[in-house]
UniProtKB/TrEMBL annotation:
Cofactor dependency: heme
Topology in the lipid bilayer: Single-pass membrane protein
A GO biological process held by the record: brassinosteroid biosynthetic process
Species for this entry: Ananas comosus
Protein's recorded name: Cytochrome P450 90B1-like
Amino-acid positions noted as binding heme in the UniProt annotation, renumbered to this chain: 401
PANTHER family in UniProt: CYTOCHROME P450 26 (PTHR24286), STEROID (22S)-HYDROXYLASE (PTHR24286:SF194)
GO cellular component: a single term: membrane
Length: 455
């Protein structure tokens, strides 16, 4: 069988020429850096084209910083104005150019002000707490006695139901909710996959999913405008229609960004809390006592539903959540980019260089936390300034996560319902792995047993 000459050329190029070009480019870049400034920060060039990508993405336990960071981490603190927020190039295609996380300057400040008004405590204190309690109770009631429950899937459902209720006014009973959740999860997976836009690849599926999610949001937007009731709805869509002059595309990006921020981290944090409490019976019992005391006082006062004061009085529960976020490292790093050439501590950082602020290294600093890899919620009882400064699960500064209080409310209410009504145990060993975001390889399978903690 004769092979076409063109095919032979392609094979020769693939096997010989292409790798040679890659090596030459890599060496040229290395020589350029040395000539420009020999004080460029130390670090391996890695393989041609891919650099140290595979080393960076190598899985490791979430309570460690991993081999790559151990070898390359520099404990430097930079003046924040020298760097701006930065994310990989494929993010805008998935979350939208007008999503808050991608905005800068006046556009960021304007949209942040609109979202902050929506996040005010009045909204959290009112019916929203009751919505979360209802959603948590409904989901837990669906668990079969003695059956296997995959916590990852259930946490995703709970976090999505909570945030989509506040974003679009949708409930789990609405016909489009479950399909929207599936499309969103496909979109989310694409954010942390290689951006290969070919049929069948995760990134390609994510782009398709984004189009469907945006279509659903746009449909809701058109329905509101047709009814003339956009500003009357107690959700983010109604709030943005009323308080802004954004284009439909901008509104869709705003809603999508809100859902992304509310689902991605909260669901992972909930899985981590269940995992750590499962492996720390003492913490689980002390937390249960706190919630029993809460319900006892409510029974004496003739009040049934949880209130904002109840949430605020759950001190040990907040310690459990904080320690979960510290050890689990849900969001281990922040991407930054140099706004200009920088000389710092004898090193040269060129303009445009991406720098990673590795928050996990702060959380696992042994000078601030004794045995930092161990889950120990009692360590947070003391008002230790150094510990407080080293606890940054929601970032810090002007770009600190606005939904931090919402996330704590979600976790507190779900754990309240779980710990008063169930005991649980692992079905098979599983543990959180960072690749680089945290996940459970086996989806954290647990077996639940209903319990009666009568007052």
């Amino acid at each position: 069988m004769m092979i076409p000459f063109s095919t032979v050329l392609v094979i020769i190029f693939t096997i010989i020429v292409s790798p040679t070009i890659a090596i030459v480019v890599a060496q040229s870049l290395k020589s350029y850096r040395k000539k420009r400034n020999p004080k460029f920060p130390r670090g391996p060039m890695g393989w041609p084209l891919v650099g140290s990508t595979f080393s960076f993405f190598k899985p490791h336990h979430s309570s460690s910083i991993g081999h790559f960071m151990e070898q390359n981490l520099s404990r430097w603190w930079w003046y924040r104005r020298l760097f701006r927020n930065s994310l990989p190039a494929h993010f805008p295609k998935l979350v939208g150019n007008s999503s808050l996380v991608l905005l800068m300057g006046d556009a960021y400040r304007h949209k942040k002000a609109i979202l902050l008004a929506f996040f005010n405590k009045f909204r959290l204190q009112a019916g929203f707490l009751h919505d979360i309690e209802r959603l948590a109770g409904g989901l837990l009631a669906s668990w079969s006695e003695g059956g296997v429950t995959y916590m990852t899937e259930n946490a995703n459902k709970f976090a999505f139901y909570v945030i989509v209720k506040k974003a679009l006014g949708l409930t789990p009973e609405d016909p489009e909710t479950e399909q929207l959740r599936k499309e969103f999860m496909a979109l989310y997976k694409g954010l942390y996959a290689l951006p290969i836009n070919l049929p069948g690849y995760t990134h390609w599926k994510a782009l398709k999913a984004r189009a469907k999610v945006v279509k659903t949001i746009k449909k809701k937007l058109d329905e509101r405008k047709a009814k003339g009731s956009g500003g009357e709805e107690d959700d983010l869509l109604g709030h943005v229609i009323k308080e802004s002059t954004y284009t439909p595309e901008n509104i869709c990006d705003t809603i999508l960004g809100f859902i992304f921020g509310g689902v991605a981290t909260s669901s992972t944090a909930l899985c981590l809390a269940v995992y750590f409490l499962q492996n720390c019976p003492k913490a689980r019992e002390q937390m249960r006592e706190e919630h029993l005391e809460c319900m006892k006082s409510k029974e004496e006062n003739g009040k049934g539903k949880l209130t904002w004061d109840d949430y605020k009085n759950m001190e040990f529960t907040q310690n459990v959540i904080s320690e979960t976020l510290r050890v689990g490292n849900v969001a281990p790093y922040v991407w930054k980019k140099a706004t200009k050439d920088i000389e710092f501590k004898g090193y040269f950082i060129p303009e445009g260089t991406t720098v990673i602020t590795y928050l996990a290294a702060v959380h696992l600093d042994s000078s601030a936390f004794e045995n930092p890899e161990q889950f120990n919620p009692w360590r947070l009882n003391t008002k230790d300034v150094k510990k407080a400064n080293n606890l940054l699960p929601f970032g810090g500064g002007v770009r600190q996560c606005m939904g931090s209080e919402l996330a704590r409310v979600e976790l507190s209410i779900f754990l309240h319902n779980l710990i008063l009504n169930y005991d649980w145990e692992s079905v098979e060993p599983d543990h959180p792995v960072s690749i680089p975001l945290v996940s459970f390889p086996k989806d954290l399978p647990i077996r639940v047993r209903a319990v009666d903690h009568s007052l």
